[in-house]
Amino acid sequence: MSATFSGWRRSPLFYRLRRAVVEAACLALGLVLAIWSVAPLYNMWVIALDSHDDIFSGAVWPEHPSLGSFWVVITEDFWYLERFWHQFGNSFIVGLATMFLTLLIGSLASFTVGRMRLKHGWMLTNAALMTYVIPASFLAIPIYRIMQIYGLGDHLSSVILALTTFATPYAIFIFSQYAKSIPMELDESARIDGATPVQIYYKIYLPLMAPALVAVGTYALLLAWNEYLYNFLLLSTPQNMTVAVALAQFLNSDESPWNYMMATAIIYALPPMILYYGFRRYMAAGLTMGGVKG
Amino acid sequence: MPGNWHPRLLRPETRWLAAFILPFAILFAAFAVYPVAFCLWLGADSALYGELFANPRYPTVVLNTVLFAGLGVGLTMLLALLLSGYFTGGGRWRRMILAVFILSWAMPALPAFLSLHWMFIGYGGFMNSMLDHLLGIEGPIWFDNWGLALAINIGAYVWKWLPFWTVILMAGRTGIPKDLYDAAAVDGATMPACFRYITLPLLANLVLLCAMLATLWAVGDFTTTYFVSSGAPALTTEVLGTYGFRVGLTEGHPGLGIAAMLTALPVLVLLVAALVRRLRTADIQL
Question: How far is CA A16 from CA A3, A10, A12, B102, B199, in A?
């Protein structure tokens, strides 16, 4: 029995069969993964395309699909959405400002620590990483209070500053790691030629850091756009809200038009997803930039 | 001429140094050090902890946080470890599936969690409609049951973060020399044996590091529970993040809210200490 079995195991047919079974199993797993990933998005679409009365009809596909709710959002034709495009702009301002400040402050700090050989500079970066000990949600209450002390209540800059603080330690970390690949000799020869630190920073350091800047910039932009808690806490009037806060406003009532909410949610999710898929290569590079060398 | 200044402080180099580091120093002092100090000061009153521990809700919140972070991170890491192998070995269509798989990471958490909440609504929700259409079963009222609601929160967490850790571990796998697998294949090692004796030992450090980092973030997670179950049924699935927020801000008792969150601090400090140690000893950096 065992002889025939091992004979069978060595036959080419067995290998071909085994290959086919493995391939089929992999394909099935792929299908499951695709469904798992797409199901919540599909659900958003179905609700957004429904008319208000049909939302909880239990239909797997709406009977009368219509893009009406998207039109309502685009034309700001509902009272939660009265200032939608303005809030969309606010989200952009918060995202871009957070990105710019994170890149500027992070690169300056990492330049000082790594290139200008600041004494005990590593302590600074370690201290910055320590801010992660207390999760952002735990700091919500003190930061809320402090922003009022600073007189920044309900002002976009409060969110920008808070999110920049959270993004900068990561930026410094990635920059410091990446800068190790830039030879020190470049700085030294520039210095001998009489370049000031500003010139070295601007003309040598920044251009060579471009890939790291793109990776961290995308990270900061997405962090700011996607963040909810601080946006909600620090911005309260429709004039100063970002889209995330406006979106969650729908939850204030049990009778909200959920199709409008989902249409808003889809439009809100589009820019980061476009950015994400556009910059995918850089995103992955940014993650592994510190060098996940096992 | 400033009198007793150290000569080094007067060098132009030093002044540049100060100017370059100043923005970060100000930002860090104003928006990190001050809030943390303020947080500790608000939570320093020991009477708050008496009040907190006397609250019958508090033990449930702790249990939920432990289950949420423990199961969420554990499941995520296990699946990420397996899926990173699945996607690394793949041809073209597997790369296409990876592109779809990454959707949940590219998507902002808020709309995703709103959608997940609506998927599991008892009547007319997507999940129960599907169960009815495909299997003819009447689904449960998901958010009426503590276990089911918590499981959905954990599932939502896994859904959102699985692609991120899978990509990290895929990068980790590229660091394993391929000839190890070739040599094993020559010796007739099966796939599970390769996984057990090559992949697992070489990735163990990275996986552990990722798990610690993920736990650090999961313990403070707010968005998942706040939007997916919203604490339903009857605020029994709340975690520390949402509980502290509700008590501290919605109910206007900031000290108590902060005290609740600070009870997680010992665990977090231990985690960070272990993490820093590991970063220093292992040659792995994230």
Answer: 20, 11, 6, 32, 26
Chain A contacts of B114, Cβ < 8 Å?
A: 44, 247, 261-262, 265
Give contacts of A270 with chain B, Cβ < 8 Å: none
Q: Which residues lie closer than 8 Å to A284 by C-beta, 6 or more apart?
A: B167, B171
Does domain A74-289 sit in CATH 1.10.3720.10? yes
**Assigned token pair, B177:** 């020399």
Across the interface, of B16, B32, B121, the residue whose CB is closest to A197 is B16
pLDDT (mean) for A11-26? 86
The pLDDT value recorded for residue B1 is 43
Question: A124-182, pLDDT tens digit by residue?
Answer: 777 777 776 678 888 889 999 999 999 998 999 999 999 999 889 888 888 887 888 88
Query: Which residue do the tokens 């998901």 mark?
Result: B142
**Cβ pair B115:A46 closer than 8 A:** no
Distances (CA, A) of B81 to A194, A252, B88, B167, B243: 52, 40, 11, 10, 32
Prediction pTM value: 0.89
B171·A136 Cβ contact <8 A: no
Mean pLDDT calculated for residue range A1-29? 78
Q: Is A167 helix (H, G, I), strand (E, B) or coil?
A: helix
A169: nearest Cα among A219, A227, A205, A207? A219
Residue the block writes with tokens 């910055």: A128
Question: How many Cβ atoms sit within 10 Å of the Cβ of residue B259?
Answer: 26
Report yes or no: B21 and A168 within 8 Å, Cβ to Cβ: no
Q: Would you state the pLDDT for residue A173?
A: 80
Instruction: Give the residue from B160, B92, B165, B100 showing the smallest Cα distance to A33.
Output: B100
> What residues does each domain of chain A span?
2-66, 74-289
Structure tokens at B25: 């120093």
Residue ranges for chain B with pLDDT beneath 70: 1-11, 280-286
Contact B159, A40 (CB under 8 A): yes
Dihedral sign from CA coordinates of A256, A260, A265, A268? negative
Predicted confidence (pLDDT) per residue in B162-180, tens digit: 998 998 898 888 888 888 8
Q: Are B68 and B243 in contact (CB under 8 A)?
A: no
Judged by CB atoms closer than 8 Å, whether chains meet at B111 and A247 is answered as yes
Complex-level ipTM: 0.86
